[in-house]
Each structure stands twice: as C-alpha cells, then as structure tokens.
Amino acid sequence: MNPHIHRWHDIVKSRDLRALGDLLDETVVFHSPVVHSPQNGKALTTMYLAGALQVLGSEHFRYVREIGNDTDVVLEFETTVDGIHVNGVDLIRFNDQGRIIDFKVMLRPYKALDAVKQRMAALLQAFQAGSIKAAP
User: Fold this and answer.
1) How much is the pTM?
2) What does the pLDDT look like over 101-123, one tens digit per residue?
3) Does residue 134 belong to any structural domain of this protein?
C-alpha cells in the first residue's frame, strides 16, 4: 500500500487545508466528475478539494474500500448529500516525494452527481468571489 495515503486520510478527518497544501505537488492535476477539462495546478486543486471536503465531508462520509500500490491508490467512499446516497471513487497518484500529482473523482448515481454538482457550483462561485477562502 502507498506509504503516504495516511496523510490524505488525516486531512479528510481534520479538514486541515494547510496540510492539504503540503500534500499537493505544484503540478497536480485535478479531474472533476462535473468539469470537462482537467484542472491544472495546486491552487485550483486546493479549491476543488476544499469544496469537496465541505460538500461531501458530512458525518456520513466514510471510505469503504482501499486498493493501491506504491504510487496509486483507489479509495471508494459513501456519503449523503441533501438526503441522496452518494457512492464515489477517488483515484490518487503520488510522486516519489510523496506528493499528490493526480487526483480524479468519480461519482454515482446520476442523481447524486447532480446534487453534488449544484452544491459545488455554489461553493466554487463563493471561493472565486472571495467571500470564503479555500485555503488559509
């Protein structure tokens, strides 16, 4: 199993965005389930992951399966958003320095994807407007 994945689990539990910044490589690429093109760089990835932690990270969030090797980890999760069951997968790739270089999120069913999309859109708009901060 990947020796650095425990750092991601700690961030999910603590919501420590400073630690998230330390874990992400400057060149990280984020693949959103609702945005067509990959989002490049640490700043955008931090914004998306901070939003996801707020939208998906309720008391119902839990990882139910973990598969991986030295560089890649697949984490299956379940949660509830607006009363809708969400089943998803995080695909995470680490570099040799233990930093995340690729993060892909997949969600199902469609009703859950739509609920997350609506909540994330509002949150990301607030991040971009500066009314809330994605990172300290």
Assistant:
1) 0.91
2) 999 999 999 999 999 999 988 88
3) no
